[in-house]
Amino acid sequence: MDAYQTAFGQRIRRLRSERGVTQEEVAHRAGVHVTYLSGIERGIRNPSLRNIRAIAAALDVPMGDLFAFEPDAE
What we know:
Elements: H1 3-19, H2 23-30, H3 34-41, H4 49-59
Helix pairs in contact: 2-3, 2-4
């Protein structure tokens, strides 16, 4: 798996958990399927900018906050 995809997904999961919302709720708000969001959080999906923007809005954070991470060294 790509370290950046994995770190990006972990960041989304962390933000979602901090807000106390489920994958289902974020997926609904973002207009994506829950299995797609799950794949992003697990680092196996590579979302488009459109979906990244929708997820940020669903989490009520600026899009840039989703990228506030450092991937683990491979």
